Structure formats: structure tokens, C-alpha cells
Amino acid sequence: MVATFALCLSILLLLITNPALAAISTAKPGCKETCGNTKVPYPFGIGLHCSLNSWFEVSCNETSTPPTVLLKTTQMEVLNFSLRSSGYDSDLEFHRVKSPLVSMNCSRTEASLGVDLTGSPFFFSEFRNRIVACTSGTIFDGNITNTCSQGTCCETVMTSVLKTFDARSLRLGSDGCNSAYLVEQNWRDSYTADGSVGAVIDWAIPDEAFELSKSGKEYSCKQYGLILDEPHLDKSIRCYCNHGYQGNAYLLNGCQDIDECLDETKNPCGEVKCINRPGSYQCERRKTWVIPLGMGLGFGSLCLVMGGWWLYKFVKKRREIKLKKKFFKRNGGLLLQQQMFAKDGGLENTKIFTSKELDKATDNFNKNRVVGQGGQGTVYKGMLTDGRIVAVKKSKGMVAENVEEFINEVTILSQINHRHVVKLLGCCLETQVPLLVYEFVSNGTIFQYLHDQSDEFFMSWGTRIRIAKETSEALSYLHSSASIPIYHRDIKSTNILLDEKFKAKVSDFGISRLIPIDQTHLTTNVQGTFGYLDPEYFQSSQFTEKSDVYSFGVVLVELLTGEKPVSFERDENRRSLASYFINSVEENRVFDIVDSRVMKQAKREEVMMVAKLAYQCLSLSGKMRPMMKEVSIQLGHIL
Question: What are the extents of the domains in the chain?
Fold first, then answer.
């Protein structure tokens, strides 16, 4: 049920008896309050942004003398507004407009049709208006209980509220000059300077048009029944400042406390000391011992509170510092300093972020900001205070092995500067789990485009070869151009990201390793992703740069076929994509497993060149596989 909000505006100018009230503006903050000598209280306002809505917008014509106020939606001139300042005022709230006139057969105002307020929140007041009719014939209407004798004027009370007052609602006689108009009850005393009289208009608003909080100590709102023809105006709510407050109850903080003790002529306490209270006052006799006692107690209490507050802040700060140091040490901060500061070009270009910065950037690591999840952690999209969009990687709970992997990733990425490798911007170690901050790569992974694709997002043959070449350039750089060779150890399609221009970016160095220049392999526990793992490494636990080549070969086959590296939906002898591809090449059935949409775009000789290159990369013997630099050169010839 639509509740409504209603209030009436009166025929009399607001009489300000309390000096404090004059200083309280009743208009919306920042808006003009008066037009000439006429005050315009909210929800009315001069201009749309200063009123509740378009119905309550008024315009101020300052070119006329005196300036005139016009209610824009009804085009009625407003003579004055009045606002009830407190619940104990006798006046309710209305506004007065120039009285509408209906006439027929009168030469001066021929066929004046009056006013139609249908559909608006305004209506003529039933109790504060009456109808005056002047006729040389006869007028009769349901709202006029009298019949005027010929050539006379008469007046009568209204029996219900009116939304329209025009020639359609009044049956004016057809002979002679006949006219009728609405005026307020005491209309004889309300003439304006130009001889006009006023009619009283009330108004009502459905509650969804006006956000009103619950009644508080400063103001009250009460609901009254209101009988109208329009269902959305079936009830009304009137608000006013409570006793001891004054102002505009329809504005936020619009009711202000009245200081009763300021009015010396009406001091409610007489010779006794008057103490102002919110909404009231208190009379209290002065006692000499009370003041110093109160001051002493107040000062002691203040010292106690301030001391307790300072102690709480001090202990809390110490606890936070201690906890951050604990996290820094547990998350490998000492190891990071040992590995990074001991090398040229260490942490100078890597920012150490605070937890507060990254909380703000990721909206406290909101689940809606998650853009990826991997074996080493979860990645969130964030925005730094300087406007940069970043990816924040939140590592999993720390055990000794995970700490080493995290610090290892920071150490490796801090030394890498390549256009096809994701750039590390910084890290944070003072949180419960460590955080890495990367540049944000916006277009997902090639895995998504190959295996979750539709015809609308088909990855063309040229794009696939270009991505393969860019990835091979990045791996070639890691293997041979970095200051210390780096083995990625987890090359797969989910770790190859695409930026806004669909350029490849190699990511996720959590299990990567730096290799001393005088060594050719790394002996470790077998780690990697099933389907991409080098069989030779799996058997010997010795990882070489050719192990990365094997994993890249699987990615090449993915790009050729559009198939996943491992799928239990395929037959048993086809579950491993690498084995199935090798058998197809050896049986001269390459074109049978290549993506049919690729075959429509690519030249057969280009497909065979890529297939042979992938076959070489997937050789069971690492010595037979090409170097990544050779792979990059061959892919460049195809492009």
C-alpha cells in the first residue's frame, strides 16, 4: 500500500516571534531562500535542484515589482508560503495562490476556465476555502448549496476537497455575466496590493517520493486520514519540530534546539540560574562547592579517559607492529632481503606495498574481484590510488615450502624485463599470507579462447601463430638472455595471458628456478602440470631448458588442434594429447586432428611446418628437441 506524505500551507504570513528562528534557513542548503519578500521553504524551491521534485519547483520573476513567485507546473502565482515551525504552533502549513476565476458572458474575462489540478499533488482546501458566485442569472453546483438570486453575489462553504475548479465543474447560467471564484475563509481581510484575493491550496506526496527517517527527539511525524478521489493520495503524513526545537522538519537536521535561556525578557527561571538542555531547559540554584567539585571530577574523568584511550592506542599500535614483523619474517622477508639486496638492481624497482593500500585497491579482497585461481594462490583485480589497474596475487597459507616458492617468484620477476613476460610491480609481506602485485593483463588466457571458445570468439590461425612466437621469444629470453638462466617449469596455456592487444604475456613463476651459468640441469622433486610434464624429467628428476621446450610443444599442439592436453572424454589411447599427436604424425594423419576451422584458414604447408616443429619439441629425448631460440626463429618464418 502506498503511504502518502501530506502537508498544508496557510493563508497568513509566517510570524517570527523568536529571534533564534530568523537565523535558521528553511530552504535546501545552498539554495536561494527568498524571492523578494517571499520566503520559499523546502520541499518547495527556486529551481528544480532546490525542490523535492518538479511539482514543487517555483520560479522567481525579479523583473516585476514586487518580484513574483510562480508554481511552474500549475502556472499559478503564489502569494505567500507558511511553514509550521513546531508541534505547538497553532498554524498548520499551507500556501496561498491568486484565486482562480471562472466566468461566462463577461466582457473583461470572457470564458476564463479556472484551474485543473488533476494528477498533481495539489488540491483546494475543503475547510479553508469558500466559493463566491456573482451572477445576473442562476448558478447551481454540487459544491454550492445556495441559489443566487438574479443580479447578486453569494458565498458558501465547500463540502469536499476540489482537484478542479473550472467551467466543467460549475454550471454557470447562460444569460448575462456569470462568474465564480474560490477564496479563503477570511477573504475580506486578505486583499493584496493589486486587489487580488487568495485561495488556499493543500498538497500531498506519496512516501516513495520523499525519503523520511523515523521520528527522532528533534521532530515528529504523524499520519492522518485524507479523503481524495486519487488512490495515491489516500493518506498523509505531517511533520513538525518537537517542543523545544524550531525550523524545517523536512530538511536533514532542519530542527534546531531553542535556547530558552537567551530571551532575558522571558527568562523561565526568573532569578534562578537557567541552564539550556536539548529540547528543554533546567532551573538550578548556584552552589559554591558544586563548581570546583564538578571541575575536579570532570578534569579527573577527562584525564582517566584520555589516559585510557592513549594506552589502548599505544598497545594496539605495538601489537600491530609486532604482528606485521612476525608476518614479515614468516612470509620470507629476511630471505627476500638476503636474495634481493645482495644483487645489483634488486628491490630498487620493486615497491613494497602496505596491507592498507592493497585492502583499498581490492575492496578488502572482495570475491567479486577474483580473476583467477592457481596452484600457488588466488588473483584479484584491483586499482591503486594513482589509477593503475593491477592484479594482486594472494598466496596460499604459508608452510616452509610455499614461502620459498613465493620469495623465489619475487626474486625471479624482479630481474625480468621483457614485453612478453608479466611485469612485477611489488609485494606485501606484512599480511597473514604474502601478496604479489603485477601489471593487470586484461584479456584472460589462451586456454579460455581455445577450450571455452564459441564461433563468436574464434582464435584465428594468424593469431595462434603470433601468440606461439611471442611465447617462444619470452622463453628464449629466460633461457639465454636473462642475467642468470631461468627455467619456468610450468609452461601451459593457462599461464599464457593476453593483453588488451592480444599480445602474449608469460606468467606464474611460483616454481621457476634460477640456474647457475656453469650448470645444465636442476635436480628437484618433480613438479608441474599433468599433460605438460616432460617424461624425461619425470623419470630422472633432472629439469633442463629442454623440459620447458617439451611443455611448449604441448601448447603448440593445443593451438593446432583446439584440444585439451588431457581429456577423459577421449578414448583411452587418445587421452594424452601429446601421445595422440605423436602417433598421428608418425601415421601421417596430422590433418585429421587439426582444428577444422584452422584448416579453412591456414595453408597446408604452414600447418605441416608447425606440426613438425611441435613433433620435434615433444621428442622423448631432450637432446633431440630444439632450443627455444630455434623454435622462435622457425615460427617467425611462418609469420
Answer: 4-92+207-247, 101-190, 339-439, 446-638
Dihedral angle over CA of 155, 158, 161, 162, nearest 10? -40
pLDDT confidence band for 237 (50 / 70 / 90): low
Cα–Cα distance, 188 to 321 (Å, whole number): 80
Q: Would the CA dihedral through 379, 383, 388, 389 be positive or negative?
A: positive
Which position has the higher pLDDT, 140 or 364? Answer: 364
Active-site position among 202, 257, 490, 595: 490
Distance of CA 382 to the CA centre of its chain: 15
CA distance 414 to 402: 18
Contact 433, 394 (CB under 8 A): yes
Contact 94, 79 (CB under 8 A): no
Query: Residues 6 or more apart from 524 whose CB is under 8 A from it?
Result: 513, 541, 543
Report, at the CATH architecture level, how domain 339-439 is classified.
Answer: 2-Layer Sandwich (3.30)
Which of 137, 221, 219 lies closest to 172 in space, CA to CA? 137
Given the C-alpha cell 656453469, which residue does it identify? 518
Specify the 3-state DSSP secondary structure of 336.
helix
Q: How many CA atoms lie within 13 A of 611 on its CB side?
A: 26
Instruction: Map grid coordinates 476537497 to a residue.
Output: 161
DSSP 3-state helix, strand, coil percentages of the chain (rounded to 5)? 35, 25, 45
> Which range among 145-154, 260-269, 351-360, 487-496 shows the weakest confidence by mean pLDDT?
145-154
Name the amino acid, one letter, at 370. V
Exposure string of 366-376, with b = 16+ CB inside 10 Å and e = fewer, is eeebeebebeb
Answer whether 244's CB lies under 8 Å from 44's CB: no
Q: What are 506's three cell numbers?
A: 608469460
pLDDT averaged over every residue in the chain: 78
Grid coordinates representing 231 are: 488512490
Is 455 assigned a catalytic role? no
* CATH of segment(s) 446-638: 1.10.510.10
- Which of 411, 412, 439, 415 minimizes the C-alpha distance to 425? 439
What is the band of 380 on the pLDDT scale with cuts at 50, 70, 90?
Answer: very high
Q: Are 268 and 262 in contact, with CB atoms under 8 Å apart?
A: no
Amino acid at 309: W
Confidence of residue 374 (pLDDT cuts 50, 70, 90): low
Which set of grid coordinates corresponds to residue 199?
485561495
CA distances from 607 to 466, 483, 604 (A): 14, 35, 5
Q: Are strands 255-257 and 245-247 parallel, antiparallel or unpaired?
A: antiparallel
State pLDDT tens for residues 99-119: 877 777 776 544 456 788 887
CA dist., res. 27 & res. 46, Å (int): 9
H-type alpha helices, 155-227: none
The residue behind cell 524551491 is 45
Alpha-helical runs (H) found in 290-398: 290-330, 333-340, 355-361
Amino acid identity, residue 586? Answer: E
Task: Give, for 377, the enclosing helix (H) or strand (E).
Answer: strand 377-383
User: In one letter, which amino acid is 50?
Assistant: C
Q: Which residues pair with 82 in a beta bridge?
A: none
Strands 198-206 vs 95-98: parallel, antiparallel or unpaired = antiparallel
Q: Tens digit of pLDDT for each residue in 621-637?
A: 989 999 999 999 999 99
Cell numbers linked to 83? 511553514
Quickly state the pLDDT bin for 90 (edges 50, 70, 90). Answer: very low
